[in-house]
Amino acid sequence: MKKNENSILEFIARGQGSDGAGRARGAGLRVGIGDDAALWRPRAGYEAILTCDWFLEGNHFLADLHPPRSAGWKCLARAVSDVAAMGGEARCFLLSLALPESRTEKWLASFLEGLGDASGALDCPMAGGDTTRREQVLINVTVIGECHHGRAILRSGARPGDAIFVTGRLGEAEYGLRLLHSGDKRLTMREPRLQKHLYPVPRLEVGAFLARRRLATAMMDLSDGLSSDLPRLCAASGVGARIELDRIPCVRIAKQDSSGKFDALQMALDGGDDYELLFTVAKKNVALVPKAIGPVAITQIGEITAREEVALTDENGLSRPLKNKGWDPFR
Amino acid sequence: MKKNENSILEFIARGQGSDGAGRARGAGLRVGIGDDAALWRPRAGYEAILTCDWFLEGNHFLADLHPPRSAGWKCLARAVSDVAAMGGEARCFLLSLALPESRTEKWLASFLEGLGDASGALDCPMAGGDTTRREQVLINVTVIGECHHGRAILRSGARPGDAIFVTGRLGEAEYGLRLLHSGDKRLTMREPRLQKHLYPVPRLEVGAFLARRRLATAMMDLSDGLSSDLPRLCAASGVGARIELDRIPCVRIAKQDSSGKFDALQMALDGGDDYELLFTVAKKNVALVPKAIGPVAITQIGEITAREEVALTDENGLSRPLKNKGWDPFR
Fold first, then answer.
1. How far apart are the first and last CA of chain B?
2. pTM (two decimals)
């Protein structure tokens, strides 16, 4: 049967899984999908975190390259990453979806599977959204999160002398993207080297830990690459930074790929889509930062400086400016 | 100077006007544009209303037909209309904007003027958003509203015997759209007949009045047309409706247009984009509903029935089913 707007909305609502209603109530949702708007009850003593993110076919994913399941997972995961970057918990999300009629069946079902997986894993049920028709798939996700009032970690609190940390390994998503673009027929969507690109995991636990302990002076997530994002954190804080090259936890290039095609350092500096956290900690508190939280490594990579420039120091102590070569859609 | 993502974000933030920061604080925004996410403090005793809306070039507006100022106004006004439809107040909004580089100067400035006008008029400051590049302008607006806990008016509360009301005149937006499409060179963007289409005004005061007095048993806004939207309200409430044709407050066709080209009743039934309110009131409370609130007329047009069908009754008492011919992007 040909789908219309009402039946697509029903299909999307059903796609949220059998535990969707229970999770929705747990998230404080009194009215979810199906009315003019959702009704959500914030908790006393908490602030709401509001964020939205584009995820567009042609810009952020390609229909012939990316499985719809990945699109479903990633559109939510990357928006939730902004909540992690404030030190908050995700509570619920709104999905705005535009798609061609040809994708309202199999593609949509698989997309909703990935979205449902992310929604379950990140404890963030769907609250509502908007659906329309378009030749290409357009996605916009709004996430509502929460944190204790006054505990959110902003970009603006870094001070000279603070240590700079990152979670995970940088450049892994870029590595996956390049492998996917290589057209290697032996790659399956289960290939471990592709997972960070296809199914990134926002660092909610690390962010919440840092907010709870009041350990981080500033934080943001790495969505466009360290060389784009670190200057933003510095600008917001009115400071500079010195990064030590040999401390950066770079993506590990697999043996079969070590043909000089992949520059791990360059991918770690300029690759986007990692959704790792970048944060700063006052010198006196550095020892309180664990080496890892769960499976997620935490690595000190440098120091905040008073001089408003971002520099890279190599193993010989030589410094050069960090050039902003990360992702910018208008470049 | 060529704009990049950072400078476009600054341009957008500045476009929110000199009173933007003051209004933002008033709305409970502790952190707005510029961080990973916004921080918003809900008021004690209130629920949050969450809604988002597409506004896409090619679908919802045309670059060569619609002034950018109208696009800026309308993208926010129509999203706020969902808050009015719950009986709430708008608090703040997130703007997701994708646009080609050629529109980052004059077009964007004019768009932001219209958006700023709506933001001021609707008391709804910008809290944040996301910007990227795209060949066509894509807009998604998320609005966060509030209402006293338990006072929101849902679609699902209509009961047999309830009176059905609408605000304003129906079909006015469709009339404006058709005039605009007619290519009449004498039309200016100030032409009164175009205003409802270009600059719709969400019925926040009427919605809030009904919620405060607990007068409406069900409510929604008319975005796709009465013939599409009334069946949705009926389905959500598990009821039917009988509308009296001669009671429908139809758009008034100007003398110069009375050439048979414009069917006021058809436009009132099937025309979208009016953003008037459709609501139901228990019979015993009908006398408590005013004839108008401010400049906005309120008209009783029919009655909720137990039989689950939506019928139109003409002046001779003859009934026929109301055919769903409103806007459906998948039709």
1. 44
2. 0.95
